[in-house]
């Protein structure tokens, strides 16, 4: 990873070299309830601020520290944010502050900021903290006038500090802030909940128990809803959508039906703010007593409490917070007197800036709608992502009686292709259940296309996929075999089982397979059926999608291991670890894992490097060893260079670093493919599979003519991928041109834009293209219109 600037194209890009922070002072504070990932945001904001030449200050203990001043406001250095990335909570402290709510408190705070010439605030907290910051900004010039009148500051100080700029980042495990898809801490909180649910399921299974789990969310049901989706809970209670009157009987009936179908356990998830239609609270204790009274099941309650706030941040939260921290500093540098206070956030996979007060107003409208019992409205205001989660949960959780199902008489086959990826089983479960709900007969194919041509195809029922969401690997079995050599036999099997549509879940081989079947349509009419592919591979190397099922679980495995390795290095001092990751020729795992683990250097195939770069990286680490951070972390993608192998790089670093640092190497290997899927992969797999089956249903109806299905247009063989903000169905034939088949990677990859970010945070001088950074938008415009081919995730 050379730190030199890339040659500038003739270009629409704008580089932040022209954005200087010289002469500016930025203060970073965390306020309100803590959330995992806040430290990553603080670290990124501090380092980016120092990088652009600004002075950066910590304000310890949130607004309380701003009011008290003194030692609570300290200048930050590059080293002072080292080792923070993997720590949960907030290292600079947070406090709820009554005094800041008073005018006198805010006057003291303004005085303390002016003494340090701080006119740029980066606030990380929930909606309360951000509303407070906005009020402070509106009062700023009045507060300065008062300070001048009281003789506490002179006119010159008032003039040079006349504008206060504020940028917010939302740190809240509840994900209760409108306008943002994910707030910092939400993903980590889901990790804690899912760890507990997975553990509880094994004991519940043993004793045939029912468990009622209470999760956080006083006003927002996001954690309850997504964890219910991710563990396949039997019932969920959330404040935005209370159950219909008479829910007690419906719930007990559903629980007993699931037991009679052979299930040995029930899981019910209750948000702490759950209410009924009359606004009365529904508590976990009430639900437990109800189950015991009506059904006599052995029932236990588990209240998760503050466990959900604790622990190390997930890979997703570290990336989110690091991207947001850098984005916040850019927003502060670009702010002018008339820019409104904004929040930086992610929508889909894209950084956006939104006016802070618009988001706050919308967040308050949700509460108002709930108070007025307009529950449908409350769900809609929560945003498209929340709505999607709710509708997917409803589709999957309740099995209709056979008489209620539409009779489609179509047969749909599901198979896994390529290497296993965590989350494949969640996708299969979702596809099977949504397919049955749509009236189709679902068939499972074992062992990919190899099983297909051998005829390992059997019908799969609703109950067969129970409990699949949390299982790693591929329960159907998966093989890398491509269909090309067995077209005759596969066509025959399609005829024998009368398969009318195909859902293929897998990685690059799945993409190649679908292309081969599409191209074989000219010779075999059997392949003229709707075919859809879902990208599932840890390498995230499939064209047409920004993310693949399984990559998040793999990143978490990498980051967890890097954390442990860094910890071992901090004991021995002056040690550099060289770690090899998987990914084929795709540098996604190495780059994004490096960003989340705080790597010094990451070597990948997509960014060629030579011996001079290696030498520069060794010198960079030698300089680092002179500071207080005496350890290094270097990641190398397995195929980044055929000659600069992991051994070569290890030996080079060992020789060149002799007397300054010693080296160790570690090849992570297949642990990156294993393990239970992360909440993100369960949820992503579940949602995309449901969407794919709905597309298959529509396409089947459109292509059913003269008593049979005939689909031979290119838009009937699609890949469903996530592109920036939306889920999009793209014909595989059109994706062919976007693909480098020799190296099995897309020709353009969005995450390469994250590399400069990683270099900046590792103290390399580099060129950073900010043309893709967030532009100020309005909240109402955040949700693109739903079209037939796309829907926001």
TrEMBL record:
<keyword id="KW-0547">Nucleotide-binding</keyword>
<feature type="binding site">
    <location>
        <position position="664"/>
    </location>
    <ligand>
        <name>beta-D-fructose 2,6-bisphosphate</name>
    </ligand>
</feature>
<feature type="binding site" description="in other chain">
    <location>
        <position position="638"/>
    </location>
    <ligand>
        <name>beta-D-fructose 2,6-bisphosphate</name>
    </ligand>
</feature>
<keyword id="KW-0963">Cytoplasm</keyword>
<protein>
    <recommendedName>
        <fullName>ATP-dependent 6-phosphofructokinase</fullName>
        <ecNumber>2.7.1.11</ecNumber>
    </recommendedName>
</protein>
<feature type="binding site">
    <location>
        <begin position="126"/>
        <end position="129"/>
    </location>
    <ligand>
        <name>ATP</name>
    </ligand>
</feature>
<keyword id="KW-0479">Metal-binding</keyword>
<keyword id="KW-0808">Transferase</keyword>
<dbReference type="InterPro" id="IPR041914">
    <property type="entry name" value="PFK_vert-type"/>
</dbReference>
<keyword id="KW-0007">Acetylation</keyword>
<comment type="pathway">
    <text>Carbohydrate degradation; glycolysis; D-glyceraldehyde 3-phosphate and glycerone phosphate from D-glucose: step 3/4.</text>
</comment>
<dbReference type="InterPro" id="IPR035966">
    <property type="entry name" value="PKF_sf"/>
</dbReference>
<dbReference type="InterPro" id="IPR000023">
    <property type="entry name" value="Phosphofructokinase_dom"/>
</dbReference>
<feature type="binding site">
    <location>
        <position position="33"/>
    </location>
    <ligand>
        <name>ATP</name>
    </ligand>
</feature>
<feature type="domain" description="Phosphofructokinase">
    <location>
        <begin position="26"/>
        <end position="331"/>
    </location>
</feature>
<feature type="region of interest" description="N-terminal catalytic PFK domain 1">
    <location>
        <begin position="1"/>
        <end position="398"/>
    </location>
</feature>
<dbReference type="GO" id="GO:0070095">
    <property type="term" value="F:fructose-6-phosphate binding"/>
</dbReference>
<comment type="similarity">
    <text>Belongs to the phosphofructokinase type A (PFKA) family. ATP-dependent PFK group I subfamily. Eukaryotic two domain clade "E" sub-subfamily.</text>
</comment>
<comment type="similarity">
    <text>Belongs to the phosphofructokinase type A (PFKA) family. ATP-dependent PFK group I subfamily. Eukaryotic two domain clade 'E' sub-subfamily.</text>
</comment>
<keyword id="KW-0021">Allosteric enzyme</keyword>
<feature type="binding site" description="in other chain">
    <location>
        <begin position="582"/>
        <end position="584"/>
    </location>
    <ligand>
        <name>beta-D-fructose 2,6-bisphosphate</name>
    </ligand>
</feature>
<comment type="function">
    <text>Catalyzes the phosphorylation of D-fructose 6-phosphate to fructose 1,6-bisphosphate by ATP, the first committing step of glycolysis.</text>
</comment>
<dbReference type="InterPro" id="IPR022953">
    <property type="entry name" value="ATP_PFK"/>
</dbReference>
<dbReference type="GO" id="GO:0005945">
    <property type="term" value="C:6-phosphofructokinase complex"/>
</dbReference>
<feature type="binding site" description="in other chain">
    <location>
        <begin position="670"/>
        <end position="673"/>
    </location>
    <ligand>
        <name>beta-D-fructose 2,6-bisphosphate</name>
    </ligand>
</feature>
<feature type="binding site" description="in other chain">
    <location>
        <begin position="306"/>
        <end position="309"/>
    </location>
    <ligand>
        <name>substrate</name>
    </ligand>
</feature>
<dbReference type="GO" id="GO:0003872">
    <property type="term" value="F:6-phosphofructokinase activity"/>
</dbReference>
<keyword id="KW-0325">Glycoprotein</keyword>
<keyword id="KW-0418">Kinase</keyword>
<feature type="active site" description="Proton acceptor">
    <location>
        <position position="174"/>
    </location>
</feature>
<feature type="domain" description="Phosphofructokinase">
    <location>
        <begin position="411"/>
        <end position="696"/>
    </location>
</feature>
<feature type="region of interest" description="C-terminal regulatory PFK domain 2">
    <location>
        <begin position="411"/>
        <end position="793"/>
    </location>
</feature>
<dbReference type="GO" id="GO:0016020">
    <property type="term" value="C:membrane"/>
</dbReference>
<keyword id="KW-0460">Magnesium</keyword>
<feature type="binding site">
    <location>
        <position position="300"/>
    </location>
    <ligand>
        <name>substrate</name>
    </ligand>
</feature>
<feature type="binding site" description="in other chain">
    <location>
        <begin position="216"/>
        <end position="218"/>
    </location>
    <ligand>
        <name>substrate</name>
    </ligand>
</feature>
<feature type="binding site" description="in other chain">
    <location>
        <position position="272"/>
    </location>
    <ligand>
        <name>substrate</name>
    </ligand>
</feature>
<feature type="binding site" description="in other chain">
    <location>
        <begin position="172"/>
        <end position="174"/>
    </location>
    <ligand>
        <name>substrate</name>
    </ligand>
</feature>
<comment type="subunit">
    <text>Homo- and heterotetramers.</text>
</comment>
<dbReference type="InterPro" id="IPR015912">
    <property type="entry name" value="Phosphofructokinase_CS"/>
</dbReference>
<dbReference type="GO" id="GO:0016208">
    <property type="term" value="F:AMP binding"/>
</dbReference>
<dbReference type="GO" id="GO:0042802">
    <property type="term" value="F:identical protein binding"/>
</dbReference>
